[in-house]
């Protein structure tokens, strides 16, 4: 049984648009997708935002045989064009552009909206039959590297999440995380299978209007990345009561110990469940979770494996390994990669970990040069290359500090901090509050002439 079929079997499922106040069934969400070409499977780029049209267009393509690449419609136009030149999608959904060179504008309709799909006139990119959804590995940086996921990957992960999250048919679930982010996509999938009302078109969770809508509609859960919980802690979330909330969940990186304890204490006092989870896009989202009743004693743990998943440690390196039916089919860095599908039995997470006597796992470090900021995974090497090229910085080192911010170290006396922060925001949409800049008298180097990141971190401490 496919993912969309499981959603269709949920007779409590509906979608609320807070902008208009209208509610739609799953069937009413579907746009009529035209014939894109002579082949059954085409590559389609979907640039999405949080409006209900984006949710509807994704669900509409989920019901076709096509393969969809989910991206932010806020990507810089140069990044969009670069990705499109590399992958030559047969069709593009992007509400930010009135026209796209080489593509003809087509109008899609359902009972409540009309939108635009651009269909190309070029030869289609060949896509493997297993490949259903492609998600970026780099958050907002627009890297051409994608994770290839099958419909089975997505469905099995959704079912495993439903096995531990207390989702019910009476739930009213806000879609406050973007669908092009694996965490946000999993919130849609799990609640569409087992939940009730999905709320679309929401303002940012840190805006007052979001909380007014929560009071109005009675949201029963909230999903957030560490930054969201850090900010909710600052703006007074923990000082108020939310009678409709039954549980909250956190993933997308490491939430600081003290903030995690505060939210756990709040949930215990208010008869709510707090689910701390660990995942990777390569595993379709979730890999492990901490049962709420264990969180107080395992506050720094990533928990235990999800149903049908298995965690282990590489005996040589201590790297955390995962296996399960939600493991992806490999990466794509160019369109030729889309015709292949790898059967990956063990996912190497890139994280160093340990396991305690109760079978709970703890992350103790990273093997790879990636960090998660605002829940988006950022390639630090890509950031460095951009700064060197764009701002003509000779030596620059970017380091992720506890998934809280990016530390940019350089030796350019004439370089203004705000210039660096502005450049990163304009190109990659990394908020300036998530970037700290330090000027060094001399860049520390290893014996082989490479930047000594450990020395920079040690000096920072």
TrEMBL record:
Coiled coil, from the record: none
Superkingdom of origin: Bacteria
Domain AMP-dependent synthetase/ligase: 123-331
Gene Ontology terms describing biological process: fatty acid metabolic process
GO molecular function: medium-chain fatty acid-CoA ligase activity
InterPro entries in the record: AMP-bd_C_sf, AMP-dep_synth/lig_dom, ANL_N_sf
Pfam families noted in UniProt: AMP-binding
Keywords: Ligase
PANTHER family: ACYL-COA SYNTHETASE, MEDIUM-CHAIN ACYL-COA LIGASE ACSF2, MITOCHONDRIAL
Family, per entry: Belongs to the ATP-dependent AMP-binding enzyme family.
Name of this chain's protein: AMP-binding protein
């Amino acid at each position: 049984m496919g993912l969309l079929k499981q959603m269709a079997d949920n007779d409590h499922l509906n979608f609320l648009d807070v902008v208009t106040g209208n509610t739609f069934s799953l069937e009413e969400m579907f746009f009529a997708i035209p014939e894109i070409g002579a082949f059954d499977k085409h590559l389609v780029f979907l640039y999405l935002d949080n409006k209900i049209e984006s949710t509807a267009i994704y669900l509409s393509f989920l019901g076709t045989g096509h393969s969809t690449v989910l991206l932010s419609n806020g990507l810089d136009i140069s990044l969009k064009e670069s990705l499109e030149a590399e992958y030559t999608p047969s069709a593009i959904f992007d509400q930010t552009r009135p026209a796209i060179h080489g593509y003809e504008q087509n109008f899609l309709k359902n009972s409540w909206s009309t939108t635009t799909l651009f269909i190309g006139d070029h030869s289609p990119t060949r896509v493997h039959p297993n490949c259903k959804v492609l998600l970026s590995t780099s958050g907002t940086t627009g890297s051409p590297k994608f994770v290839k996921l099958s419909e089975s990957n997505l469905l099995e992960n959704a079912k495993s999440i439903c096995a531990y999250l207390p989702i019910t048919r009476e739930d009213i679930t806000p879609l406050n995380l973007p669908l092009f982010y694996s965490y946000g996509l999993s919130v849609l999938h799990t609640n569409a299978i087992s939940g009730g009302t999905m709320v679309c078109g929401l303002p940012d969770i840190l805006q007052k209007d979001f909380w007014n809508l929560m009071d109005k509609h009675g949201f029963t859960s909230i999903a957030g990345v560490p930054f969201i919980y850090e900010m909710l802690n600052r703006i007074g979330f923990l000082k108020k009561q939310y009678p409709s909330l039954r549980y909250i969940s956190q993933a997308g990186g490491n939430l600081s110990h003290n903030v995690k304890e505060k939210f756990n204490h709040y949930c215990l006092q208010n008869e709510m469940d707090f689910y701390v989870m660990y995942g990777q896009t390569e595993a379709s989202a979730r890999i492990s979770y901490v049962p709420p009743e264990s969180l107080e004693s395992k506050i720094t743990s990533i928990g235990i494996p999800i149903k049908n998943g298995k965690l282990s440690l590489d005996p040589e390196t201590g790297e955390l390994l995962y296996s399960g039916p939600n493991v992806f089919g490999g990466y794509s860095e160019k369109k030729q990669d889309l015709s292949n599908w790898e059967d990956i039995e063990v996912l190497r997470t890139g994280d160093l970990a340990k396991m305690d006597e109760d079978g709970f796992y703890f992350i103790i470090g990273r093997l790879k040069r990636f960090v998660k900021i605002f829940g988006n995974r950022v390639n630090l090497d890509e950031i460095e290359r951009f700064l060197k090229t764009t701002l003509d910085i000779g030596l620059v080192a970017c380091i992720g500090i506890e998934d809280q911010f990016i530390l940019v170290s350089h030796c350019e006396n004439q370089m203004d901090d705000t210039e660096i922060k502005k450049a990163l925001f304009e190109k990659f949409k990394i908020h300036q509050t998530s970037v700290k800049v330090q000027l060094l008298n001399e860049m520390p180097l290893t014996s082989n002439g490479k930047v000594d990141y450990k020395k920079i971190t040690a000096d920072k401490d």
